[in-house]
Amino acid sequence: MPQQRPTMAGDALLEELAARNLIHDHTDRESLVERLGRITPLYCGFDPTADSLHIGNLQSILLLARFQEAGHRPFALVGGATGMIGDPSGKSEERQFLEPALLDANREAIGAQLSSFLRFDDSSSGAKLVDNRSWTESVGVLEFLRDVGKYSTVNTMLAKDSVKSRLEREEGISFTEFSYMLLQANDFLELHRTHGVDLQVAGSDQWGNITAGVDLVRRRTSDTVHGLTAPLIVRSDGTKFGKSEGGNIWLSADRTSPYRMYQYFLNVADDDVESMLLRLTLMSVAECRAVAADHGVAPSAREGQRRLAAEVTDLVHGPEVTEQVKHAARVLFGAPLAEVDDMTLAVLSAEIPTTTLAGSAVLGQDPAGLFVELALARSKGQVRKNASGHYVNQVSLAERGGEPLSADELLHDRYLLLRKGKNGHHLVVLEG
Questions:
Q1: In terms of pTM, does the model score above 0.90?
Q2: With 70 as the cut, is the pLDDT of residue 91 above it?
Q3: Are 222 and 184 in contact (CB under 8 A)?
Q4: Residue 26, strand partner residues
Q5: Distance from CA of residue 299 to its chain's centroid?
Q6: Tag placement on the chain: N or C end, fewer CB within 10 Å?
Q7: Do 271 and 416 fall within a single domain?
Q8: What is the CATH number of the domain that holds 308?
């Protein structure tokens, strides 16, 4: 039976990835192109050291998705075994170990996230979720040293950037972290043997681990397998995004709200717009470049950032949530409140100071007193003196006069939006 062919030729796929700046290192191109002429099982690993992936992982997730769209079969490895150790690549210090029960919960949460980006089905390109603990946990130390350690030299391991960078630091690297490379190499061998996986993809900090796996597979089976890495998504200071680093943009709405994610991309530097459109969205290369070109004509309008923020938030949270986020942002900049739905106000409640009060503490009360109670003003006299700078539902106190607050003013029967000056927003929610 002839082998099935993918929907995109191997050289065309690599050219597409190169156009998106998604190639940093790869094994022999000619051999890789030949392999990609047939449906190729490939994998990328994600350690469950937190209950969510982050923006730094999104590029790798979409890399799997791009190969799947081209007709290849992605394997998403959520490393219950390697997660117990932690990858030293790009880390300045050793990770804290996690208990197996927490790793299991994290793995389940990450698996659910991956299912929103990859197509898991029984087709020839259907994705599969695997856990390296299933084949690592039962392996004894002596067996591992004999079957994996024997085929890797310490000289080679010491030459890997992930190890060298740690050896240069005073605290060095533990033997536990040093062994991570061998565990990941063994993953490649296991997936190659059991599922025919012939390609590993990842960020560029994984190149040393990938080549260790390529070498182990060659030494143990005489087969040729491949690796490909993409440049890391980094912050403006050059540091990579990571679960153990501070200030991450998480893919989980519980960790990073969709509003905050949208605002993050709305504020990226002009020079980063085209690169992030190409690497973090599913827009075509031509469309990404067209948006970036239009943005370059009038960068102050920030249309490139708006498109980037919308596309990424759509991918992660869905178009409906993105619309609510965009509307919530417009409200803070003066969009008419008559257009605001209940969900938009719920989005706002998570992003601006919000206080829940009994109806009797609000209705029939002097609005100046409410500003004082919520620490938006020092005294009622101060509010009255600057009545034009204090607003209830976008109407200044100077315009509404001294009338007490009424139920007719409530948004969706329970909200009031207060504002002092241009940016001092506070949302009041009535109980019940």
A1: no
A2: no
A3: no
A4: 228
A5: 25
A6: N
A7: no
A8: 1.10.240.10
